[in-house]
Amino acid sequence: MSRVAYHPRSTAQVSQEFFRRWAPSMALWGAGAGVFALYFLSVTPKVKRTFLVKVPVLGSYYEDKTPASDKPF
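^ Ubiquinol-cytochrome-c reductase complex subunit 10, sequence as received from the core. Prediction below:
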């Protein structure tokens, strides 16, 4: 007959094992959510000025080239 052996583990060991297993998946989902949020909010002026203009390669695409005389406010 087999015996059941109980090996107690501390909370730190359980959480370390959990994060080691799930960290790559959470990182990919987080990066995807961040890219989606920037794409979805790219039409707002605050996001354009704060984030998108400062991107090294794509910054010139998001710069506002509208003359001041054509802006309503």
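Residues 11-64 form one domain.
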